[in-house]
Amino acid sequence: QVQLVESGGGLVQTGGSLRLSCAASGRTISTYAMGWFRQAPGKEREFVASISWNGDSTYYGDSVKGRFAVYRVNVKNTAYLQMNSLKPDDTAVYYCAAKSQLSQVVLATASWYDYWGQGTQVTVSS
């Protein structure tokens, strides 16, 4: 089992930045693909970003391309989501997810992932 805990959320003004962390425990995530999703009130869960097991491949949702960056530090068993130029539309609960996957193929579908964190709230004020 892999336990995931997100942190780093909070309240930020439009144009600001936040860095979310996803700390894993229970197993090393060095062989896991990691994903970030978000869900705003009344909306479906949305793909934000993902990264392959070794960090060689990254993928982004269209709404965050050029503003967000996903990376990982496997020796720390942690994945990160750097969010810049935040907008009010980025307000949501952000979740990290993990899937055992030793390839560069990382899907943007929530159901593909096996493990999820509890989420962290990000609020962007206008």
C-alpha Rg (nearest Å): 13 Å
Largest beta-sheet characterization: 7 strands, mixed
What class do helices, strands and sheet pairing give? mainly beta
> Uncertain runs with pLDDT below 50, 5 residues or more?
none
Beta-strand level of the residues, as a percent range? over 45%
User: What is the number of strand segments?
Assistant: 11
Total helical elements: 0
Overall pLDDT metric: 96
* Cα separation of the termini: 40 Å
Percent range of helical residues: under 10%
| Mass-distribution shape | globular
List the helices and strands in order: EEEEEEEEEEE
What can you see in these coordinates?
Strands 2, 4, 5, 6, 9, 10 and 11 form a 7-stranded mixed beta sheet that branches. This protein is an all-beta fold and 126 residues long. It has strands at 3-7, 10-13, 18-25, 32-39, 46-51, 58-60, 68-73, 78-83, 92-100, 115-116, 120-125. 0% of the residues lie in helices and 50% in strands.
Brief digest:
The protein has 126 residues and is an all-beta fold.
Give a topology summary.
Elements: E1 3-7, E2 10-13, E3 18-25, E4 32-39, E5 46-51, E6 58-60, E7 68-73, E8 78-83, E9 92-100, E10 115-116, E11 120-125
Parallel strand pairs: 2-11
Antiparallel strand pairs: 1-3, 3-8, 4-5, 4-9, 5-6, 7-8, 9-10, 9-11
